[in-house]
Design the sequence.
């Protein structure tokens, strides 16, 4: 592999590692009250911010139960469940982009990774 092919993957890996370290050193950022305060003040953009935060948290190995509880409190049981499902799906697809592309018919179909 050439440096041009390896560099983007290396940068993404380093960004994920940096995010995990920041969240590991600042555990107060993971408390449901902190998430509620940050997302709840955004008005009509709250669902969008919550979905983005939950999806990013899935990629960065943040426990989903914390964010799911915050979603239930912020948006109620029905909309909280819908937003949690959307967020977890987007986060899972973010963890495995080749699989997500292949399942949508956009990736290589000949068995190559």
Sequence:
């Amino acid at each position: 592999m050439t440096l041009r092919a390896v560099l983007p993957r290396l940068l993404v890996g380093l960004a994920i590692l940096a995010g995990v370290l920041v969240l590991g050193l600042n555990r107060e950022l993971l408390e449901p009250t902190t998430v509620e305060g940050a997302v709840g003040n955004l008005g009509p953009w709250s669902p969008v911010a919550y979905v983005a935060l939950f999806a990013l948290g899935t990629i960065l190995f943040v426990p989903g139960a914390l964010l799911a509880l915050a979603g239930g409190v912020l948006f109620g049981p029905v909309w909280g469940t819908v937003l949690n499902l959307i967020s977890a799906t987007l986060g899972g697809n973010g963890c495995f982009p080749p699989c997500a592309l292949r399942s949508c018919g956009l990736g290589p179909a000949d068995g190559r990774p």
The helical segments are 3-25, 32-40, 46-59, 64-95, 97-103. The chain is about 75% helix and 0% strand. The chain has one domain: 3-103. The radius of gyration is 16 Å.
